[in-house]
Fold:
Amino acid sequence: MQKRILWGTVLLVIAVALLACGGGKYSDVIEVGNQFADATEKYIKAIEKTENSSAAADATNTYAGKIEKIAPRMREMADKYPELKDRDKVPEELKKSRVRDDALGEKMAGAMMKVMMTYSKDPEVRKAQERLQKAMMLMMKK
Structure:
């Protein structure tokens, strides 16, 4: 289950990152994508600094709370722009920040691995990870 959470999160970060780059027609996508990317970046930095399970649980819960707020807008953008679901057909104006987003996806994978490998036995960390997984799933539900 922990691996599913990790890979699901990484894939969501990458998918959302693709939505986060550009302007004009997709300005609302950019706004929401940037919110998601900023929240993810803050989570990664917090996890990189953690030295105990309490800090890991707090960082994960903070991130989950942000995702819970962003998720409805992410879902709205996915419904509004179904053409963005195909990674191979992303409009040119949305390709600009792919480098940042790909790097963010890699860093997120590392952060999730740190949490899982170091703190996953702690019940509060597991609870926070479950909350985060549910928050991420909110982006996909209709």
Observations:
- Helices lie at 2-19, 27-49, 53-80, 98-119, 123-138.
- The radius of gyration is 15 Å.
- Confidence is low (pLDDT under 50) at residues 19-23.
